[in-house]
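Re: your question from the hallway

Yes, I did run it. Sequences:
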Amino acid sequence: MVPWRTNWPKKVALVVGVAVSAYAAAVLTAWVVHFVPLIQLSPGQPPLTRQGALTQLLLGASLVFRAVGRRRAAILCATIAFSVAVLVGFEYVLDRDFGIDQLLGVDYIHSTSPPGRISPVAALCYLSASVALLAMSIPRLARYGSAIGGMVASVLIATGTVMFLGYGLGQNSVYAWGRYRRISVQAAAVVAVLGAAIMVLALDESRTRKSMARWLPLALGVSLSAGTLGVWQALMFHEQKQLPLLWHIILAGGILGSLLVAIAVFLAQKATLRSHQFQGEKAAFERLFEASPDSLLVINGTGRILGANQRTASTFGYSREELLGLSIESLIPEMLSERHRTHGEGYYSHPSTWPKGRGLDLNARRKDGSDFPVDVSLSALHSGGELQVLAAVRDITERRHAEQAVRESEQRFRGVFETSPLGLALIPLNYGQLDFGLAKVNASFCRMFGYSEAELMAQNSLDLTHPDDREMSKVLAERLSRGEIPYYRVEKRYLKKDGEIMWGTLTATIVRDREGRPLFGLGMIEDITERKVLEQNLDAAREQAISSARLSALGMMAGGVAHEINNPLSIIHAMASDLGELVAEQGSVPAQVVARKSAVIRETAERIAKIVKSLRQISREGSNDLFHPTPVAKILLETLEICRAKFKASGVELLLPQAIPEVSIPCREVQIAQALLNLLQNAFDAALERDGDRWVRLEVKPGDGLVAISIIDSGPGIPSELRSRIGQPFFTTKPVGKGTGLGLSLSKSIAEEHGGTLEYSDDHGHTRFSLVLPLAREVKAA
Amino acid sequence: MNVKQAAVLFVEDEPFLRESMRAWLAGKVGRVLCAEHGEQALEILAANKIDLLISDLRMPIMDGIALIKKLQEPEGRRPAVILVTGLSDISPGKAYDVGVDAIVEKPINREELLRAMEQCLVNTVGS
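Structure:
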């Protein structure tokens, strides 16, 4: 069921339609059963014809169907009624009778001519009503349907009412011309009622847009004019053209009045519409005002609050009533109110909208006295000539906190960057490639290089690198840029501003964002110049130590050499003394004596020369000599020349092979001699450690392309726990001051330089060191 | 005792020097005996009355100091001792401690040696 309250116009249409149809059906029935009073209210009155009743029945039905939404049925009924009305129209135009009435029964009430025909006015009314119903029912005409229906209905109401009232006042000639019959009083009433029902329906449907139907003024004007016309026509007819000018004036006045009424209604309607619109806009504004996430305040020129939204109340802790009339300064702390007013005055004199956040870091104060930071933007509102300001106040506490957190984090990282003892540099990326420019450097970086930050900004970082290291730096940077390596770490040389070289450890990497896109390059430099210098000094010290180790064995042996030389000198001295004495005693010396003695002197001097030569030979550095095939025997004898005296003096027997094999080795003779001397020295020291038989034995054994020169001593051997350390630099078992700990490692490296080895083995409890060296090929072949 | 009557033992491992000195000593002292090293010298000492021992320091088998130390064992028949040293091979104090009477350095200055011999033998006259 359709609710009554909202759908009363449809109910009205329904009731009217049913009533009209029922009445028409009753009249038709009355025609059949000859119940005249229902057809003709009184004799002399025009009867309601059968076709008139039928048309009314159809129009009533159409109205009913329209009211209940059966548009097709409504159209059908209205179309038939329309056709009947049109046919009647043709009958009048052609002045012929189509006998429509006869189809519906016998016409037994002859009152007017032509018989069996509805009056032209009734036909016109029915035609109009059917058109109105059609217009309202045909979906295509929906847009104009109610307007057409409403206008037509207003005319129907006016004419129907005028005609009905005309009867009541005894004016039968309303809308009647000449011989044509008049409309019946029942039909006039039905027309008025039908018009009213259609009007109600049309108004209802036009009202859907919340305003009165826009066609209403026009409908009113037309209907009033139509009514006026009817009244005027009736009066004209009745008074038979007396004072015609007066009547014309009356007609004109009536129509003018209608026009004025229409205009008045039109204006009223427009005003209502505007009022509706305003109400709507106001409501929308209020919704916006309330829904704003910001606190919104409307302030007048003196800073009084005229309006505030709920957000303002909740943010500031006031009720909305308390806020009204309050000064805006109550919401702004004292110390800032001055500034605010200055801004405000500036604002009032230049009432353009302040953009938000334009340096307006204002503090607002809640009712409880607590402050909070806000962002205020103002915009002008012109209301009735008085300037008002809309202030949007946004609580930015959280934003402030976030900003603070970001600032603190930034400060922390800046602190780390700036105070780092490492030299840090940010290097910009150029299309993903490491540029060699510098985007940012820290204080340590500046200090290291001696440049100011500004000077460095203008520098190419590659220019800071030592020219010899630039190529390497470029290659590494390219690999890093291509992502082949996540970072690199390299020791390289830099050039300081003063031209000095700085050694640095550079760790370079590319800083990327979360998606892995490269942001910039980061270089971290540690100044390792001091360490490098120490290392170089250490290298020099090592060199020195090795050199002294090389000479150490020689020095040890040289003690014996002095005696070794002194002895031959004594011989020469003795020979010379013999000769001198012979000359002194005998005046001359026999030739054979001279020959013998001089031979001894020469032989002895040559012995001295040999020792000196060996000494000089072995004390040479020799590491840059060329390799020469040298007989092993030669090296051995020369070396032994130096040692012999020492061994003899200390009672250590030197056991030599019967014959030294005639083999040669490609070598630096001096180095091999030095290695042998070291081994002999060690063997000598070891032999002294034990009492009893003290000896050092030499063996030379050529093998498969190699020759092994072994030195075995009578010493106690090397404890097994120390064997693994043999040959380690600076490892020694000798007392402090006696050995350098480098002898064996030196001998070992000499052996390796010659493509050979230094091997240790245990020889029946005695120590055996073998210098195993490759033989020279040609000698082997020979 | 006069040098010319003295029996002298010269110990030296170097043959050329030994022979040269033997010839020179022969013209200066009563009797000259030579040995190559300490052990040989001890044998000679045991078999002969020797007034003066002139010994080299460095020698194989038995060196000069070892030889001089052995001399002290048969007390009373001890000859005067002159030690011939190389380049400061032994400190004079140590040498005198073991009973050396004089030290002569190599190469041997024969006049110096002769003075040392005379001095040593004069000191032994009364014994």
